[in-house]
Write a structure and sequence with these properties.
two-stranded antiparallel ribbon; 2 strands
Amino acid sequence: MLVAEGVIGGLGVMTAATLLRTIASHLAADLEAIRRGYGNGLKSYRRLVYAHIAPSKLQTKLHNYFSPEEIAAIQMKVQEHPDLLAHWREHVLANLQEIRSSRR
């Protein structure tokens, strides 16, 4: 849930900016795992998690982390252009279309 920054009923509330930074850090961690050669393991792990997660939480996971298909697309692009990982760590991608259309 996104709401204005502050405290509601004594509970801390995540702002949109904080949420975006959190998602970006999750995606950056995925890119680092791929850079280190753990992309195939990451794909397997995500398939396992997505197969056992509550359907109500799946869309959030797919939004916050790269899907197995996105990881595969990143791996293919990086084979063609190894410099892309460094660029993507600075300019985190949002979805499969951005990965596939990246020309850098």
